Amino acid sequence: MARELLKGNIAIAEAAIRSGLQAYFGYPITPQTELLERMALRMPQLGRIFLQAESELAAINMVYGAACAGVRVMTSSSGPGISLMQEGFSYIACSEVPVVVVDIMRGGPGLGNIQPSQADYNQLTKSAGHGDFRSIVLAPSSVQEAIDYTVLAFDLAEKYRTLVIVAGDGMIGQMMEPAELPPMHQPATARPNWALTGAQGRPKNIITSLFLGAEKLEKVNKRLQAKINRIKSEEVRYENGLTDDAEVLVVAFGSAGRIAKTAIRDARQRSIRAGLLRPITLFPFPSKPLDRLLTDTKNPHGVKAILVVEMSAGQMVEDVIRVVRGRVPIYFYGRSGGAVPLPDEILDQILTLAQHLDDTPRFNINHERELRKAA
Amino acid sequence: MMTMEQQLVEKVVYQRPESLSEVSTHYCPGCTHGLIHKLIGEVIDELGIRERTIAIAPVGCSVLLYNYFELDCAEAAHGRAPAMATGLKRVQPDKVVFTYQGDGDLASIGMAEIIWAATRGENITVFFINNAIYGMTGGQMAPTSLPGQVTGSSPMGRDVEMTGMPVRMAELLAGLPGASYVVRRSVYDIRTIKDAKKAIRTAFRVQLAGAGFSLIEFLSSCPTNWGLAPYEALGWIKENMVPYYPLGDYKVADIVKDLK
Q1: Same domain, A102 and A222
Q2: Which of A247, A282, B148, B151 places its Cα 20 to 30 Å from the Cα of B60?
Q3: What is the pLDDT at residue A368?
Q4: Does A51 touch chain B (CB under 8 A)?
């Protein structure tokens, strides 16, 4: 397929359609509404199912119902709608049906605004709903990646029979870039043997998240945890660049990761050895890759400081702190409320902390404050 | 005159419907869930649709409905069954999809979902079990609890100044253009039981004909939380519920009339 100029939201919709999406249920919310509108146009054209639900709450339950039939189904929303869907996420994860959800994150909390944000990180990775479960979370940083990870999301959802969330921010949903769509795949006609297709010539199937009695439910939880452990060991994805000799490691995802690349290039031009670790799976978080970068004996200088950049007040930074275990000072730079950092802002952070690299003490909150004041 | 041998041959005149599982239910003695389950099971057998019918269980006393029917079943979140049914039916229009919901599930937390399923004319069937109380959680006030009715959350009797009047769902939904067959029945005596079974058959036939949204509101009893013996509870339906919730047909679209 040729490259074409595509808006992120449209590209995601088309990628899903070409992955054999059978049904889409959603609700308008900025900044992802174009995705819903594209589905409204294309799904009926292709004889597939589209319905604008009465709310996000209804939408996720329609998705749940269709997923019980064993077909590829998805919804999309932004923060306020995702919050409404969290009930459904928990049911979906516990009853182990494959579902794909796209969150095009916007400024929050509350009604917030419609500008880009990454502040749903905790909500999506730590607990997309009540109870013990984790969903796979994929974070694209370009329109092409949005396409590729939407395709991947359906494969992973079916492989693990779980919820997979594609987490873009408003910028990714709205921007237009050249990208290539995959060829068209029709929805599969075969259904998995667990699906609710009518008990013809077989015992009945039940799809439920209700397991009365602690023994039963503990077994279910152990199964879910075993699944999560398999996902952790097999599905980590990330990008790292200019890290062979990096002294300053920038950790950032999505649009922030992309913007950081420019800042790192500029820093290198000023002889600062900066590099980037860009998580692509926010869950499972690339803990081992981060750890390897810290302990890499082939790095002649060693990582001396980490700068975490997020479009939030600091959520992924907590995962970084957890993995680093105090071995290296961690600095944080964030913009909130829909503000998007410019490359120069990140460059300033790198330049400031680079001045103190050789005599930087172990992580010291007051030192961090001094650096921020100087920035 | 039959021979002794002929006289001694067993003739099965009634048996458990194939669509009902061979398990004992957990319902209270005198609960009308068991009776209504049986009627639904009989109709599914008579129509020969067991192998393509899918049930969606609610949150409420009938949360374990999936143990009692020999059907593919899904468990919905509280109130969301009509939305789940929408998704399931739209991707599998050749299947028969029904929800089975209590008065809290359908008329309280699920109010938006049921109104929208009816408004869109979803080609599903809804069995609405109205017993004017929240049974599973121990007897709190329901949207359909009667004025002055004493419940766990209306210990002084339902105060309609504070809570509004009870909601009549059959009338409400019948007013929506997408609804094709909306009726209210009960099961407190032989006559009403027979009428209820006929309505179940009509409702499924509406769905099989692709003729739109069908709903039956069953006035039901909850002996345990009403504090009445089972037979008295049936009488309570007739004396107290029927005057406020009259039995009858509230919407029978032309397309449904043609089915008859």
Answers
A1: yes
A2: B148
A3: 60
A4: yes
